[in-house]
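Example record used in the benchmark description.
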Amino acid sequence: MSVIETLRKQAAAGFEAVKKLLGDDAAVIPLVRLEGMIAAGGRQGALNLVRVEKLLDKAFTFERAPVIAIAVNSPGGSPVQSRLIHDRIRALAAEKEKPVLVFCEDVAASGGYMIACAGDEIFADPSSIVGSVGVISASFGFTEVMSKLGVERRVKTAGKSKVLTDPFAAETDEQKARMERLLDSLHAQFIALVKARRGEKLDSEQELFDGSIFTGEEGVAAGLIDGLAEARSELRKRFGEKTRIRILAPAKGGLLARVAGATADVLESRLAWARFGL
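Model output (structure tokens):
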């Protein structure tokens, strides 16, 4: 019997015991919404551990809930924050002995898919975009603009590797090599996490770790997700039509905070979504 099957049976048995004890046949299941670009700090609307940790903690306090549900809708972002959120979900699941069901919406790609891998089971819409197990670094170079403007760049460092990349200077072979080493290391960590969580479910005959994206339908065949389902319908199918869903989502902040969101952050977020046609 697989770990998921064992967890499912334990959850169902616990749920039935609670119903008999309390005479209540309606499950109340928290659904944590994790939506947006993943980034550290105080970026407007960004996902990071500081912003969602209390929500995750609250979800796992639902002692009578047979499972914890999480909805993911993210094009990715910070690999560190993605892993921190993933690891926090797994730590709580182990501590509270609760199965986790993840439901991917429009996109669960790159860091968004890393978070989705915290689920014991992962579901998506047939048209969802999942995967993108890769690492990206994008920047600009303004060397010709600087020379045309007659501007001289002056940078002094102690340590030859202090400057990883400089948009105002030509990129050297050494800088390229350092960046490739960094990206390869991050990519290897991502691959190891996916393999550890998805195991033998992954299609070994298919290239899954080159950054490719898949529809939800393709993701099932590839083993990246377990099935096609929407959160409410799947939870009610498993635990009864009377099942109640408690939505838990990060606070959006007041009107002033939303209006004052930094233009650069908004543009970066839009570009991240645009990579997937959204």
